[in-house]
Amino acid sequence: MVYRQFCKKNSKYYTFISKELVEYIDLNFSTYSDKEYRAITGLSMGGFGAFYIGIKNQGIFGNIGSMSGGMHPEEYKGNWWIGKVFDSNWKEYNIEDIAHQLIGTKSNIIIDYGVDDFFIEPNRKLHKKFLDLNIKHEYIERPGVHSWDYWNNSIKYQTFFFSQKFNKE
After folding, report:
1. Burial of residue 30, with CB atoms counted within 10 A of its CB: 0-12 exposed, 13-18 middle, 19 or more buried
2. Does 30 have pLDDT greater than 50?
3. Is CATH 3.40.50.1820 the classification given to domain 2-168?
């Protein structure tokens, strides 16, 4: 029930994650503030959120990831209060519909799904769209479902991917 309290249209999570949290971390910790050394990722609907924020803030995040992300929220508008969170202009939120904003990006992108995850089919379409648009990305399908067992393993892949990109510089 806590989730319902925070999922409101007037939520400030977008600016909190993309602006305030980034500023706080850079002010209070020893970080590299260049986008090449900053990554955003998440799992399930957090995977969608990370991807959405990463696309909209490519000058802040040079590395974008998703683990089992619900990248096409319109398909799930009747679940998890999604219809109450987003307005009715789904084309602004469906990652496939805004994928063109990544054309020519220098962002490093990783997308990871279990083959038995209920979000897999829309993400296969997204993967195809990225290929059609010539958007460089890493796409992984491994055995697994939409679960913590999968994500506990997936985070290792994502961490390795990001660390390789950070160390490349």
Report:
1. exposed
2. yes
3. yes
